[in-house]
Amino acid sequence: MKKTLLRNLLLLSAVLLLTVSCKAPQMGAQSSMKAGVDFKSVAVVSFAINNYGSFGTAGAINPALIDPTLMTLVKKTESILAEKLVVKPAATFVKSKAYRSLSIGDVKSGLYAPKFSGTVMPSFSSDRKAIVKGVLPAETAKELCRTLGVDAVVLVYSEWMLDSGKFIPTIKALTKNCFAMYSKDGQKVFYDRKDMRGSRVIGGAFAGVHINEETIDQWVDAFSNSAEIVLRRHM
Question: N or C: which end of the chain has fewer CB within 10 A?
Answer without folding.
Answer: N
